[in-house]
Design a protein that fits this description.
By secondary structure, the chain is α+β, with helices and mostly antiparallel strands. The chain has one domain: Alpha-Beta Plaits (2-Layer Sandwich). It is built from 2 helices and 7 strands, in the order E-E-H-E-E-H-E-E-E. The longest helix has 11 residues.
Length: 96
């Protein structure tokens, strides 16, 4: 199943009413992994995983920005508390 397109991956403006924060990710999770997890909910315009500059490993959290707020709401409702990579992830609105 192909998912909606992604405008860009990486840093950029992630503060808006369509951005969600994902926490308790494994250190090995990368931006394409997060995209794959969330893309079935709608079109994603940006994905960002915080990385440790020294190790290059993830810091355990990231952000997903959807085009439509309803898509982000649905992702939060369904994936908050979901087991991903043997960890229970937390999915909530990103604070600006």
């Amino acid at each position: 199943m192909r998912c909606g397109g992604m405008g860009s991956v990486g840093s950029g403006d992630l503060s808006s009413h369509t951005t969600i924060r994902v926490t308790n990710l494994s250190k090995e999770t990368r931006e394409p992994d997060l995209f794959d997890l969330f893309c079935s909910f709608g079109i994603i315009s940006r994905v960002h995983i915080a990385l440790d500059e020294e190790t290059g490993l993830g810091k355990g959290f990231g952000f997903v920005k959807f085009v439509e707020r309803q898509e982000a709401e649905r992702a939060i409702r369904i994936l908050d508390g979901y087991c991903y990579d043997d960890l229970i992830i937390r999915v909530e609105w990103a604070s600006g």
